[in-house]
UniProtKB/TrEMBL annotation:
GO terms for molecular function: ATP binding; ATP hydrolysis activity. PROSITE patterns: ABC_TRANSPORTER_1, ABC_TRANSPORTER_2. It is a peripheral membrane protein. InterPro entries: AAA+_ATPase, ABC_transp_ATP-bind, ABC_transporter-like_ATP-bd, ABC_transporter-like_CS, Oligopep_ABC_C, P-loop_NTPase. It comes from Shimia abyssi. PANTHER family: D,D-DIPEPTIDE TRANSPORT ATP-BINDING PROTEIN DDPF-RELATED, TRANSPORT ATP-BINDING PROTEIN. Residues 5-258 form the ABC transporter domain. This is Peptide/nickel transport system ATP-binding protein/oligopeptide transport system ATP-binding protein. Belongs to the ABC transporter superfamily. GO terms for biological process: peptide transport; transmembrane transport.
Length: 331
């Protein structure tokens, strides 16, 4: 399959602290190598502080890439995202869009829904008349199940699910190819989440979009994504087709995340391995395997040597753990 975005050794570092002696570099994303296939629904999971939002922002050029490479390739178009600037960056902004996290905070209360959705077209100069803008707004609004009456109202008149549909229409109005959805259903009730997820899947198929779906919630990812990558402290620790990952996770961190999903099977309860403690601060990272401070299987080697992603048994399944092979054998 075609790859739309390919990252190699990608890092994003922020300078924190002031003065000559207090400066520190916080590596929010560290040495990430990953491929996102065209037309896929790619899930990125991890706890807050894992770097997943920063990785999504790096692919949107919303934060500077400070190391490694990322390439966007679509037909004739090929952009180096670490270097992209000027007219190429302007073109990329149309192609890559973000659906915001919080539909309550993201929409201006003083603008009508029509104006909220139309704004990116006007800012990017993508239409040449008000009539053309209106036509495009109506077209994308209808795909997001918003009618003409909705377009005349202000966002406060809408429920959470409807507001999220307004955010989605706004993100898609410029006809992007790549969309980052960052915790796009986290603020919604579970029953509404399913509606929004179904809409995203429908839009992906109809419009041929590639999605990067960022979530802390593995059960949401399971129902939506084709491929999942798990992040911990800025690193990818495991990546696999969704089904493979759900049937045979190999990294102790991924297994612990799965254990946190409540099981419907009564025989399953109580056997789950709990994820103890907090994710360490990115400014004070553990040596070796970054997960060793919380991993029940850590040995001395884990404290000194950082594991790299290696191919596991199934196609597209990769894991970064020194002990994944031994841990597959039941005790
Ligand atoms: Fe645990 Fe060691 Fe594997 Fe890290 S490398 S996940 S500490 S067993």
């Amino acid at each position: 399959n075609d790859v739309l975005i390919r990252a190699e050794g990608l890092s994003v570092g922020f300078q924190i602290g002031k003065g000559l002696f207090n400066k520190q570099i916080l590596k929010a994303v560290d040495n990430v190598t990953v491929e996102i296939e065209k037309g896929s629904f790619f899930g990125l999971v991890g706890e807050s502080g894992s770097g997943k939002t920063t990785l999504g922002r790096a692919f949107l050029k919303a934060v500077p890439i400070t190391g490694g490479h990322a390439r966007y390739e679509d037909g004739e178009v090929s952009y180096d995202l670490a270097e992209i600037a000027g007219p190429e960056l302007k073109d990329y902004r149309k192609r890559a869009q973000l659906i915001f996290q919080d539909p309550y905070a993201a929409l201006s209360p003083r603008m009508t829904v029509r104006d909220i959705i139309a704004e990116p077209l006007e800012v990017m100069g993508l239409t040449s008349s008000r009539a053309e803008t209106d036509e495009r707004v109506r077209e994308i609004a209808a795909k997001c199940r918003l009618n003409l009456e909705h377009l005349r109202r202000f966002p406060h008149a809408f429920s959470g699910g409807q507001r999220q549909r307004i955010s989605i229409a706004r993100a898609l109005v410029s006809d992007p190819k790549f969309v980052v959805a960052d915790e796009s259903v986290a603020a919604l009730d579970v029953s509404i989440q399913a509606d929004v997820l179904n809409l995203l899947k429908e839009l992906q198929r109809d419009l041929g979009l590639t999605f990067m779906f960022i979530s802390h919630d593995l059960s949401v990812v399971a129902h939506t994504c084709d491929h999942v990558a798990v992040m911990y402290l800025g690193r990818l620790v495991e990546t696999a087709p969704t089904r493979t990952l759900f049937e045979g996770a190999k990294h102790p961190y991924t297994k612990a995340l799965f254990s946190a999903i409540p099981s419907l099977d009564p025989d399953d309860r109580g056997t789950a391995q709990k994820l103890e403690g907090e994710i360490p601060s990115p400014t004070n990272q553990p040596s070796g395997c970054k997960f060793h401070t919380r991993c029940p299987y850590a040995v001395d080697r884990c404290k000194s040597e950082e594991p790299v992603l290696e191919h596991a048994d199934a196609a597209g399944h990769e894991v970064a753990c020194h002990r994944w092979r031994e841990l597959m054998v039941p005790a």
